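Researcher: Here's a chain I'd like modeled. Treat it as a single chain, no partners, no ligands.
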Amino acid sequence: MSEPIIQVENLERDFGDVKAVRGVSFEIEKGRVVGFIGANGAGKTTTMRMMVTLDVPTSGRIRIAGHDVRENPAAVRQLVGWMPDAYGTYDNMTVLEYLDFYGRAYGFNDEERLRRVRDVMEFTDLAVIADRPMDKLSKGMGQRLCLGRTLIHDPAVLVLDEPAAGLDPKARIEFKNLIRLLASQGKTIFISSHILSELGEMCDHLVFIDAGRIVHHGSTESLVQRDGLTSLIEIRVTGDPEPLYQWIALNSELEIADRMKNGARVRMKDTEPEALSKLLRTLISEQIAVCGFFKVERRLEEAFVDMLRTSPPPLPGQEKLP
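Model: Modeled as a single isolated chain. C-alpha cells:
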C-alpha cells in the first residue's frame, strides 16, 4: 500500500494562551477529495495554513508526499496549490496579466508559461474575459481566477479554504463541477466549507474539527449513520403546527430539530418500530392533527450538530478563536 500523500501527526498550534490546534492527526490517500468542516474559530484555516507552509506548527509534523513542511517548505510549495478564502486584487491588471504574473513567479519560461496560462484559462472558462480588469470581476469569476492561480503550476495537492463562500447558486454549481473535473484528473483535494450538503456530494471523506481537535474522520455515510446519535422523525400536521410544538416541549424524550410551516423534524433517541408506533398513537390520542409521520435520514448539517452535542467539552486552553 502506498504512503498517504498528506500526513498530519499530533499537530499543535498555540497563540499565546489559546490552543488553536490541539493534537490533530489524519492521513489522506492520493486522489481523494476530503472535506474539512468546523465552526468559525474551530482551527480549520490555521491547520490549512500550516499545511501550505504559511504558518509553523508549535509542535507535531505535516508531510506532503513525504516532504516535511517545516524542513523542506520549497518542495511542498511545488506540490501544493493554495486557494485562500480571500485574495487581493490589483488596480490596472487584467485577468491574463494576473495569471501571467504568477506563471513568472513560479519561474516558467515564456513558452511554458504561455501554455500553462492558456490551459488554466480554458479549464476555468476565463479566456472570454482575459482582458477584463481583475478588480471588476463578479464574485464567481473572481473565485475562478483564484482557482486558476492555484492551478498554474499543476500541483498534485489542492488546499482550498471556503472556495464557494458568497457564490450564488449557479456559480456554486459551476465551481462544484470544476472540483469534480479536478478529482477525475487524480488531484488530491482538501477543501473546507460551511456548505455541508455540497461537501457531502463532492467528498470521499470528511474531517471534522472542533475546538482545535478532530472529532470525526470518515465517509459521509459513517457520520450520518453514526451510532449513539439521535435520529429524526418528521411529523406533518394539518392546520396550525403550534399545538404540536407545545406538545413536544412537554415531552422530555423529544426535541425539535427543525420547525416547518406544516410540522417539525424531531430528535428521538429510540426509533425502534415499537417506540415509533407508540409515539404516533399518543399524538393522535392527544388530538394532534397528524397527516404525515416518518423517519428521515439525518442531513449532514444535523449529523454535525448532533456529533458536537455528544463530543466531550474542550480541554482548558482549547477555547475557540474569535
